[in-house]
Write a structure and sequence with these properties.
Chain A: Pfam families: DUF3502, SBP_bac_1. The complex is a heterodimer of chains A (about 525) and B (about 300). Chain A is about 50% helix and about 10% strand. Chain A has about 525 residues and is of the alpha+beta class. Chain A folds into three domains: about 65-185 and about 355-435, Periplasmic binding protein-like II (D-Maltodextrin-Binding Protein, domain 2, 3-Layer(aba) Sandwich); about 190-345, Periplasmic binding protein-like II (D-Maltodextrin-Binding Protein, domain 2); about 470-530, no CATH class. A five-stranded mixed sheet of chain A has the order 2-1-3-13-6. In chain A, strands 11-7-12 form a three-stranded antiparallel sheet, sandwiched between helices. In chain A, helix 14 crosses helix 15. Chain A is globular, with a radius of gyration of 27 Å. Chain B is mostly helical and about 300 residues long. Chain B folds into two domains: about 5-50; about 65-290, MetI-like fold (Orthogonal Bundle). Chain B has helices at about 1-40, 40-50, 60-65, 70-100, 110-120, 125-135, 145, 155-165, 170-175, 180-195, 195-210, 215-220, 230-240, 245-250, 260-290. In chain B, helix 4 crosses helix 8, helix 9 (about 170-175) packs across helix 10 (about 180-195) and helix 13 (about 230-240) packs antiparallel against helix 15 (about 260-290). The two termini of chain B are about 50 Å apart. Classes of the chains: A alpha+beta (about 525), B mainly alpha (about 300). Chains A and B meet through helix 1, helix 3, helix 12 and helix 13 of A and helix 2, helix 5, helix 6, helix 12 and helix 13 of B.
Amino acid sequence: MNRKLTKWFSILIALTMLTVVISACAKNNNATDPSKSPESSSTEKAPASEKATDTEPSKLDTSKKVDLVWYLLGDSHEDSQKVLDEFNKMLEKDLNTTLKLNFTTWTEWETKYNLLLTAGEKIDMIFASSWAKYYSYAKQGAFVDLTDLLPTYAPQTWSTVPQQDWDEVKVADKIYAVPSTFPEFTPNGFVYREDWRKELNLPEIKDLDTIEAYMDGVKKGKPGVMPIGGSAWNEVSTLFSAVSGFEAIGGDSLVVAKSYDTPRDIVAYPFTTEFEQYVKRMKTWASKGYWSSNTLSNKTEAGDLIKAGTGAIYWRNPPGAGGFIVDAKKTNPEIELAYFPFTRFHNYAMPNLSINNGMAIPKSSNNVERSLMVLDKLRNNPEYFKLLTYGIEGTHYSLESDGKTFQTPPKGTSVSKDWKKYDIASWGWRYEPNMLQEIGAWADLKKFNDEFKAENRPSIFSPILLDYEPVKAQQAAVNQVYKQYGQPLMMGLVPDVDKALETYRKKLESAGIEKLVDYIKGQAEIFYAERKI
Amino acid sequence: MKIRMERATIVFNVLGYVMISLLAIICLLPFLLIVMGSISSETEIIRDGFKLIPSELSFDSYMAVFSNPYQIYNAYTVTILVTVVGTILGLFFTSMAGYVLSRKEFHYRNPVAFIIYFTTLFSGGLIPWYIMIVKYLDWKDSYLALLIPSMLSAWNIILMKNFMKSIPDSISESAKIDGAGDFTIYMRLILPLSVPGLATIGLFLALSYWNEWFLANVFITSDSKYPLQFLLYRILSSAAVLKTNIAGNLSADFTPPTETLKMAVAIVATGPIVFLYPFVQRFFIKGLTIGAVKG
């Protein structure tokens, strides 16, 4: 028996040692591989860029045929391949290159995106964006540094993208992505039933009091209607930052700058008097029944309830509102909707970061130069741009005589009921001068955009780089408290506001919010110093 | 005496049937709700919630799912092919492994079984696995990536081994005396005797192949190779992106997610398996007891 046991043990030990050795080998392989590929690509790069400096940019060496693989974040269209074949015909003639587009789709895209960038797969260009963690990936070295390559290989793009936009994509003074050039404003706001406002003779919406008057009027005048039906969280929480003028730092968080003009005055907003006043007001709103008491667990979109005739207000940004209003016109022609952007509380608007959408080259690419050349062509040559962005003229859209507007489905063709507009994830290479306007889009969008442009101020809060690594534990704890105590308080779903506020603040303190504020303050200071704000 | 007995039996039977029917109805209700939800109109669900008897019927959601019928049929073909081929090959390899491990003549059967078992405790994790398949095996966008990774599982091999252990040794001994080789014994004697075990594992394999979407999500890049589950999941998730704050950054034209669409997708995905189930159910129940007695 004993002998048997020792035999087993020796086998076990031998096995573990074997696995250790094997796994160590595997690790070595993995470790050397990625480091190998940038080396090899950089050695390829060096002579190419030397050569390029003394030749004209238009005569860059394209003698070698190259097949590129690009990844886009989003869905393909059933005709993507057809369009791409057309595209490749032109591309092969001009640059001796063919392009293959892969799509991540939206299923578990974060996992997939992470795998694509970490596994060293050969990808020559990939969609990059601040909301797809561009800054952290760039910081970790997932993308190729384009700073020196851009003037040579993408000269047109280099000169047409505004300096401000280039500054926004910089990480440690290096450019890792080509941002899209399409100034876009996505402030928060409400879509509301304008016909009811007129019918019930309610005041025009322009501030918090008129919003309250509107909801009150709807609640009383339209029995069975919940002013904000379904999930009201977005509506109420975005309204708070608009009313208070607080600007969240680095996206969604409890830590805010107290106003645009005092970016260094950074606090956690639950400790402010503004917050206290707001939650008290929300308590009265909730008890008047402006939203349902199960609103935090309700998954129904307020917008769906507007279409069903039992809701009146829906949170959207202007482009989203446009989509919703155009769609509602089709499904419920009797409804008249209007839009109120929250920028009117303080009369300024910040554009989205340029790197809200962009294209970057992963470290694993062997064809950095060619990939940049293709991007340059795609962005700046209207023919290339229109083909890949809007599809084949005549099949997917028809161009109006002014050359700036288009119609889908194309004029004069009849399409089946399930016809889908050609639309792929083209956000990354958007370049405004080449973009077309669609007929039938929401007419007010331009009006609002002009309004925003007039009161435009640079975006100084969203590019602050926060990876939360040093304060991970505090952040998790604070988030937990926020969900458990903060959200019900903000929705006015607590019996006693004062007591609930006190508990909330106490819990936040013990969760370590102070450390979180300090960390964000530190990061913000670094950023402000860099940008000289 | 006789009458009394019957009366008791009748009462018992009546009670039993009533109870079982009630349970069956309770089990069926959610499914019925899904079916009815899939053919309700969207606005009605939003207004009044799900109902067992919708006031108006609408097949819009099915039309949305089948808006591109070619794609759906294609995905069905891929899924059925992968399921059939994968299940057959998987059964073959699993039973071979199980047979070898159950033979007493195989001297190192315990160490080998341990190595197989070991993989269930320690694994490399997602990224090394991904790197191996994409970089070293080069299976990106290949059907092999859908087929191979879930073909053999340590759990199934151990299950098979234990099942085959319960077949008396004397059977294979008798065959040996008659001059049969190892492979003949396996093919002609052991396999026919292990039908319940094979059916169970076959069902496990078929279910996992049928429901597989993650492999396609990670490895498949061309639309024509998408299996059914992934295609349906994709329809839902592109609609669901609208609900996240990413939508605010994109301003693209998505069709919004619909409750009825979700239900229709569930029906399309589970339908065939539901029809298959009554035929293989008895194996499934039998199979549940297989692992109960560990050898």
